[in-house]
Amino acid sequence: AARNLPKGTVVGYAPLIHMGNHSWLWDITYNHDRRLEGVHENLNYTIQDIVINYSFGHPKSTMLLTPYGAMVNYINHDRERANVRVQWPTEELVAHKPEWLTKDVPFFENTHEKIGLSLDYVALRDIEEGEEIFMDYGDEWIQAWEEHVSNWKPIGPEDYMHPTE
Question: DSSP characters for 61-98?
């Protein structure tokens, strides 16, 4: 934090990119030409879009809400040291229309170019100047992260050569 923030202070505000059906976000295919020691290789691979890691969703909904803005990129996960939580803004703002909270998913399928929902990041306790901002991302995120860590293998690990070699 750049200054002391009392409990209950809105630490940050983030408009949301809202998608009613995010199924098109799941896979991205990369084409990569690689030249190594005179061997030319074309690598094509598909990965899950990383935007999912920064979005809010629910397992029983196709709705996906992705915050954006300068501050949200610096909020990391820490269950024990969480000092902010998210909430809907308490008033109408340029990028927050409270009536949108009552809309159903099909409404959001046609609002890609509009902004009508936002989140406030609110201090759970007093935050001191210089203290990092943390949020508890929740059980599902922790489970997905642990699964990712246990299964992750870099692309082409058999070709990896340490710079000292």
Answer: ---EEEE-STTGGG-EE-TTT--EEEE--SS-BTTB-G
Q: What is the CATH number of the domain that holds 86?
A: 2.170.270
What's the domain range around 111?
10-29+43-152
Residue type, 136: D
How far, in Å, CA of 144 to CA of 74, rounded?
20
Q: How many domains does the chain have?
A: 1
Q: Report if residue 159 sits inside a domain.
A: no
What pLDDT, in 10s, does the model give residues 118-162?
A: 999 999 999 999 999 999 999 988 998 899 889 887 766 676 777
- CA–CA distance, 119 with 103 (Å, rounded to integer): 16
pLDDT per residue over 76-93, tens digit each?
999 999 999 999 999 999
At residue 23, the 3 state secondary structure works out as helix
* CA nearest to 19, candidates 46, 44, 52: 52
